[in-house]
Amino acid sequence: MHFPPLTKKLLWVVAAMLLLPLIIPAWLQPHLMLWPLGELQYGADEFGQPASIGFMPWQLLTHVFMVTGAGSLIFVGLTLVFFGSSLETAWGERRYGLFLLTVTVAGGLVELLVLSLGQRMGWVPFMPVSGASAVMYGILFAAAYLNPRQRVMLMIPPIPMEMRVLVALLVGMELAFGVFGSRNGFAHLGFLGGMLAAWLHIRYWRGQPPFKPRRPPGPRLVR
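Now predict its structure.
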């Protein structure tokens, strides 16, 4: 099976993520997850000074790579293969890469806002989150937005359905089991940020509201 160049590289990254818990020191792993605003004191460092942990800007990107469990990584890989590769084929490597960066950062910002607000209101404890749900749902939403009536076949169970129906079902399951079905589920709403960023990204490139119409490129002068 032939994959576009960026999709092929991302699949190697997903495979390497299986080894990250073994390669990255245990003390460093929490600093790569996404924490709410503020600081949490957790002891003392090697110099006897109070040690704390909290939000740092790089966590908007690094938390995506801290995926736990082979099942979650398989889901990420399948999303890249069946839906991300079609986006890269339609858009090209550069634009698809910008799209992935957009949904990653947007999902992280929404997650940061939700985490910080929830912690301030006492809805969730001071805790980090990690995972690539914003990226996956951004890809799924974009695929459904561009081809809503495309027929897809589920693997388990093998039921055919339209792409828009599949995304609606996945979002409903994420809300039911991931958000409202767990004690800290409120802290996992970042996937909605990825979907919003995907919608805005497509609208921007199409020159549709809330963005101004894009002007067609002018004639190129050749000397």
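The first helix runs from residue 5 to 17.
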